[in-house]
Write a structure and sequence with these properties.
Blueprint: E1 6-10, H1 15-24, E2 30-35, E3 48-53, H2 59-65, E4 71-74, H3 84-87, H4 89-108, E5 116-122, H5 145-162, E6 167-173, E7 175-177, H6 190-199, E8 204-206, E9 213-214, E10 216-218, H7 219-231, E11 239-243, E12 249-250, H8 251-266, E13 273-275, H9 295-301, H10 309-322
């Protein structure tokens, strides 16, 4: 491609989408940021950037969003609590699956070379995780409606890729966390939630004995993984890839690290980490170990996670401390 690529980011105002958009804005590309709510164009953007507000559950809106795009990053997810699919799957299916269906129909009808579509999936789409690092070869049998919807969307993309309508890549993400200067939306995940609780002086609660492990990846490393997919598509098209650090951290140790980091940053005593009875809304994946083997993706692209857990926690603590304190009217 002799001209600069035209890239559309769907879900650009979201948690991962805003970080991916911020990183892409530093490249000499033509960039369209698409979301239901307003996106902020980075003031130091190198890219030629436009931000558009579009309802992506409208197929005509999807067509406008990706018009002329050579590359589409599909990072749009339903808004609100991620447990909503378990309670009301019909409310989230139009976003989590419907957008992908509309996207591949629109792109299949376009003349010329098939565009690249990079999708944000989840490593828990496989269902019960094995007692060894997942490398992407495991069979899929999702346990939750959230993961079933992610898998359905991914299957729609892969079928379109096999048919030559698009060049599809799915990145299945491990636990993502962190707030950065690129974050356009708050991190609602467990690690940053615990950081906020510690900053408020509240105890950190676990639904187990703390030995459950997670692969916890800093959000800017995840953003760089999407850019790595953009840079190395030929090695990746047609399948899904596991994205993580390759480190399995016990959640009890993670929460204690959070308490220590917040104490170091504020000079206040460490908050306690305690075990409590799980709520009724807990799902099976809350209690499963998640190991990631990122070597296949790293070998194909050269990507590796750069930010260690403690550094990512320290960065997030600092970012949250910089946020303005809410004021109340007497």
């Amino acid at each position: 491609m002799t001209r600069s690529p035209r890239i559309a980011v769907l879900g650009a105002s979201g948690y991962v989408g805003s970080v991916v958009s911020g990183l892409l804005a530093q490249r000499p590309v033509s960039l369209r940021l698409v979301a239901r709510r307003n996106c902020v164009v980075p003031p130091d953007a190198v890219a030629g950037t436009e931000a558009v507000s579009i309802d992506l559950t409208d197929p005509d809106g999807v067509a406008r969003a990706v018009d002329g795009a050579d590359v589409v990053f599909h990072l749009a997810k339903h808004s609100g609590d991620w447990r909503l699919p378990e309670e009301n799957p019909a409310a989230t299916e139009p976003v989590n699956v419907g957008i992908m269906r509309s996207l591949v129909r629109v792109l299949a009808d376009r003349p010329g070379s098939p565009p690249l579509v990079v999708f944000a999936g989840a490593c828990t789409q496989i269902g019960h995780t094995p007692d060894h690092p997942m490398d992407g070869t495991e069979p899929d049998d999702p346990d939750t409606e959230y993961d079933r919807q992610n898998l359905e969307a991914e299957n729609v993309l892969m079928a379109a890729s096999a048919a030559g309508a698009v060049r599809g890549i799915s990145l299945r993400l491990a636990t993502v966390f962190g707030q950065t200067a690129l974050s356009g939306a708050p991190d609602a995940g467990v690690v940053t939630t615990m950081i906020r609780k510690a900053l408020a002086g509240e105890q950190l609660t676990m639904w187990h004995d703390g030995t459950v492990v997670r692969d916890i990846t800093y959000v800017e490393d995840v953003g760089r993984a999407f850019l790595a997919a953009l840079d190395h598509p030929d090695a990746l098209v047609g399948r899904h890839w596991m994205i993580g650090t390759g480190v399995a951290d016990r959640l009890g140790d993670v929460f204690r690290t959070v308490a220590e980091a917040v104490a170091d940053a504020t000079g206040k005593p460490e908050v306690p980490v305690v075990t409590v009875t799980p709520p009724g809304a807990a799902v099976v994946t809350d209690f499963l170990n998640v190991f990631i083997n990122p070597v296949p993706f790293g070998s194909a692209t050269g990507w590796t996670a750069r930010v260690p857990l403690r550094e990512g926690i320290d960065r997030t603590v600092a970012a949250l401390l910089r946020q303005p304190v809410p004021t109340t009217t007497p």
